[in-house]
Amino acid sequence: MTIKLTHQQRRILAYSIPVLAVFAALLFGAIMLMLLGANPIEGYGEMFIGAFGSGDALVATILKATPLLFVGVGIVIAFRANVINIGAEGQMVLGGLFATMAALYLPEMPSVIMIPTVLIAGVIGGALWGWIPGSLKAYFQVNEILSTIMLNIVAVQLMSYLLRGPLIDPAEIERGTRIPQTERLAESADLPLLFGSDRLHIGPVLAVLCAIAAYYLLWRTPFGFRLRAVGLSEHAARYAGIPVRRTITIALTMSGALAGLAGAVLVFGSESHRMVTDGSTLGFTGGAGFNGIVAALLGGLHPIWTIPASFLFGGLIVGGQALQRAVQVPSALIVALNGLVVVFVVAADRYRVRLLSSDGRDEQITDEGSMPGGDDVTALGSVYDPAPRGTESFDTGDSL
Amino acid sequence: MKKTTIKLVILLAVFALVAAACSSSDDESGDGDFRIAIVAPSASNDLAFTQSIVDAANILKADGLVSEVAITDGTFVVDDAAVAIRDYASEGYDLVIAHGSQYGGSLQEIAPDFPETSFAWGTSAETFGLSNVYSYEAASDQGGRVMGIMAAALSTSGVVGIVGPIEVGDAKLYVDGFKAGVLIQNPAADVPVNYIDSFSDVALASEAATSLIGNGADVLSGTAQMVVGAVGVAKTEGVLWFGTQANQTSLAPEIVVASQVYHWEGILEEMVKNVKDGKLGGELYSITFANDGLVIEYNDGYDLPSDVRQLADDAIELIKSE
Amino acid sequence: MSEVFTIAVLVAVVGSAIRLAVPLLLASLGETYGQRSGVLNLGVDGIMLLGAFSGYYAVLKTGNVWLGLVAAGIVGLILGLASAVIAVTLKAEQGISGIGIYLFGLGMSDLLFQKLVGTPIPIDTFPPLDIPILANIPYIGEMFFQHNLVIYLAFAAIPFSAFIINRTTFGMNIRAAGEYPDAADTLGVSITRVRYATQLIGGMLAGTAGGVLAISLGIFQQNLTNGAGFIAIALVYFGGFRPVGIMLGALLFGFVNALVLELKTLEIIPRDLSNLAAMAPAIITILALAFVARRFRAPSALTKPFTRGQ
Question: Touching B: which chains, 3+ CB pairs < 8 A?
C-alpha cells in the first residue's frame, strides 16, 4: 500500500518521527509506571514540568544539556571523519582534572584571565586524551574503540588517585573523612552567571558557540573539507593526497578537546565549585560521554542541530529525574526509560531518512567505496548524512 | 520546516500541560505532616550504606513520627543529587537528607537558599556553620574494633583479611578500626587489607577474598556493597565473616559471625524532634555503641564460643566508657 | 618481593585469572560473531545484566543452577533478537542503538531486582568439577583442571567457534556478510538471515555470560557487570576478531587484574598507589595490542546496514 504524499507532507512526517518514537517509548514507560503503582499521566506531567515547566526547571535542563552539547559537537567532528569516539567519558575527566589543577596551582589571578586559563587547561586535558587513541590508531593500528574504552577506565582511576592524594582538600585530611574532593576552587575561576540567575552560567553559551564554530570548521574551511572527505571515503581521500592518518588523529584530538571543555565547565560551573568523585565510573560525568553520542546522532550529526537535540535530551534526563521524585518510583526505571527512548528514536530513524529522500528510495547512507586497504580501520562506515546529496538539504552550504 | 517544528513543539506542550493539570501534585504539607526526603548514591536495597538510612527512615514512618519518606536512590552523580536536594527542599519537605559524603560541597551552596528547610548531611562531621544543616556519621571504627578482636580470637591461622572498596571516608574508618582490633587481641596477627578500588565490582571483590584466603586468612571482613562477592567466597571456603553497615547474616548463615549494624533511627528521631521544635540544624550526630546507634548483631545460627563473646562485650563496655 | 614469585602465588593468580576471564570471554565471543558479520553491538553490557538477573532469579526460584544458565541464555537470545531487528531490519545507527540497549538493560535489571527480590538473597553456585587425572598434576592441575563444568565449556566454545567460523558454510557466510555483503548477496547468501543468526548467537552468549557471572558469584546486584560488556567489546579488537585471540585477551585482562589483587594482598603495592595499579589491566591491554598483537583488519562492512542494490 503506497500513499502518495506531497513533498511538504513527507517532510512533516519525517520530522515528527523522532517525536513519535519518543511517544512510543513513553508509552512503554507508562505501562511500567502502572505496574509499579504510579500514575503515568501524573508522572509524565511532572516530567514535563520538571524539565521545562519553570525557570528553575529550564535552567536545570540547560545545564544538563551543556556537557551533552559539547561532547555531541565533538562526536560530530569525529563521526564526520568516520571515527567513533567512545572515549568522551575519559576525556571529560581529564579535562576536569587539568582545569582543576590549573586552578589549584596557578597563582591568584583576576577572573578575566583565570577563567579562560582553566577552560583552556580543560581543553588541553581532553585533547590529550583524544590524541592518544588517535595516534595509537594512526601509528600502531590500535583500534580506537578498544583504546578509548581502556582509556576511560584509566581516566577514572587517575581521577580517584589524584582526588584522594595530591589534589585532596587539606581540610579533608584534617577532619579525617578523606572524601575524594578538592578544596573549594578559586572564586576567580567561577563561571560567571547569567541574567542574575544563581545557577545558570556561561557554559551553555560557550557550548553553542562551539557548535557554531564546528559548523564553520566542517563546512567552511579547507580542513573541514578534508576531514569530511576522509570520512566519506578514506580511499579516495588518500588518493587525492589528503593525509588521512593525520586527519583522523586531529579529529579525535578535537573531539577530545571539546569533551575536555565539557569536563572543565562541569567543575567550574558546578554548585560546589570543586572537583569531587565517589570513585564510580560515571560519577563525575553523569554519563555525558555516552549521552553526548546520542545527542549527536539525534541531531543528525550536524553541529547546529545537535543544539536542540542536546536540549531535548537534557530535558528527558532532567524530566525523568523529576518524574522519579514525584511518583517515587525507583531511579532504575528512569535509566531503563532513557534507554528505551534512545532505542526507539534511533530505530525509527530509518523511516525519517527514507521519507526525506525525495524519490522514496532508501537513503544512500553507506559509503560503498570504503574498503580494504591493508590498514586496520574499524571505521564507522555509515556516515549519517541527513540530506541526500543533490537534493534539497537543510544543512546549508554542503555542495559536496 | 521551522513552522512544523514549532507546531510539533506546541502540540507536545499542550499534551504535557494537560497531563500536568491532571496531576494532583500537592505541595502543601498538612498540619502534623512531617515529610522526609532522602537522596542517596547507591541502591536502596544494597544491604549496605543506602539501605541503612532507608530502613531507619521507614522505621520512623512506621512509628508515625513522619508522614512521608521520599527516596531518590542511585544518585551517584553529584550534580544530579544537587538538583534533587534543591527540588525536595522547594517542594516543602521538612527534612532533606543528603546521604552521601560527596554531596557536601553542593549542600553548602544549597542550604542557605532554603532557610526554612532542615538538611542532614552524612556521613560527615561538618555543618559549615549553617543553622539549618545537621551532620551525622557512624563511628564505624568502634564496631570494627570489637569485631576485629573477635576475629583475632577466632582465627587459628593468625591471618585475618579485609576487603575494602576505595580507601575513603566511612570505609577507611571501618577498615582501620577492624585492623586495630585484630592487633589489640593478637599483636602478632597478619592483617592484609585489599582495597579493590571500586564500590561496585563484585567479581573483583570475590577474587580479592580468594586471594586473601589463599594467603592464609581464615577470617574475613569488608565493607561497601560490592563485598557481597567476598561473602560468597567466604561461604564456599568455609571462612568466617564479619559484616558492617547492615546485618549480613542472610548472605551466608553458616559463616557470618556478626555484623555491625547501623541504626540511624535514634539520631534521626532526635533530628526530627528538633526540627519540629524549630531547631533546624547546627548539630553533629554520631552513632556509637553508647547511644545504641551501633549494634553488633550476632548470627544466632553460628555457635560463638562464650569467651569470645565475653571479649566483645568487654570491648563494647570499654568503648562506651571512653 | 621474593614472595611474589612463588609457585603458590602463580597458581592462585592463574586460577583467579581464569575465573575473571570467563564472562568476558563468552560475551566477547558472542560479539565476535556479530562483528564478523558486520554488526556492531554496543549493548552487550545491558544484555549481560539482564541475563545475569534472569539467571540469578531462575536459580533463586528453582534452586537449579543449570536452569539458571538456560534462563540467562534465553533472555540473551530474546535481546539478541531485538538487537537484530534494530540493527538489521530497521538499519538503525548501530553504535547508538547499542547504548540504548545498555541503558535499558542496566535500569531494567536493577528495577526487576529491586521489585522482585528486594534485599539480596544468596543463591547456589556451580558445583566444582575436577577433571580426573589431569586435576592431580601438581600445580598445573590446580590452575587449570579444578574449576567447574561451565568454565570448561566456556573454553571449549573457543575452538568450537573457531571451527564454525573458519570451516563451516555458516561461518563462511558470516565472513562474507562482513567482508563483501554485495557479492555474497549476489551468490544467494541471505545477509539478513546471517546477521540475524549472529545477533541471536551474540545475544545468547552475552546473556549466558551474565548468567555465569551472577551464578558464579552467587548473588546479584545493581550494575553487577561493572562495565564488563564494554571490555568484552574492546577485546574483540584485541583478539583480531578471532576466537583464540579473544581468549588470550580475556585471559590477559583477567591475569593482570588477578595479579594486581594478589600484589595488594601481599601489600607490595602501597595503598596510595592503589588506583594507579588498578589502571594496569587497561594500559597493558593497549600496550599489548600496540606492540605485540598482529594487526588484523576489521570486516569491511562492519556497522554498515545492508541493502540490496546499493
Answer: A, C
User: Does the pTM of the predicted model rise above 0.90?
Assistant: no
Look at C261 and B203 and tell me if their CB atoms are within 8 Å. no
B209-257 pLDDT, tens per residue?
999 999 999 999 999 999 999 999 999 999 999 999 989 999 999 999 9
Q: Tell me whether 0.95 is exceeded by the ipTM.
A: no
User: Which residues span the domain enclosing B53?
Assistant: 34-138+264-287
> For chain B, how many structural domains are there in total?
2
Do B124 and B75 fall within a single domain? yes
Q: Which residue of C103, C223, C275 to mutate against B (max B Cβ within 10 Å)? A: C223
What is the C-alpha to C-alpha distance for residues B9 and A388, in angstroms, rounded to an integer? 26
Q: Quick check: B166 and A180 CB within 8 A?
A: yes
Q: How many angstroms separate the CA atoms of C32 and C236, rounded?
A: 6
The answer to whether residues B165 and B250 belong to one domain is yes
Between C53 and C5, name the one with better pLDDT.
C53
pLDDT tens for each residue of B80-134: 999 999 999 999 999 999 998 889 889 998 999 999 999 999 888 888 889 999 9
Q: Would you state the pLDDT for residue C258?
A: 94
What burial class does residue A209 get, using C-beta atoms within 10 Å of its C-beta: 0-12 exposed, 13-18 middle, 19+ buried?
A: exposed
Contact check, Cβ <8 Å, C217/B197: no
Chain C (158-197) residues lying within 8 Å, Cβ to Cβ, of chain A: 182
Q: Domain residues for C33?
A: 2-291
Please check whether residue C296 touches A, CB under 8 A.
yes
* Residues from chain A contacting residue C281 (CB–CB below 8 Å): 153
CATH of the domain at C274: 1.10.3470
Same domain, B169 and B283: no
The predicted structure's pLDDT at residue B10:
56
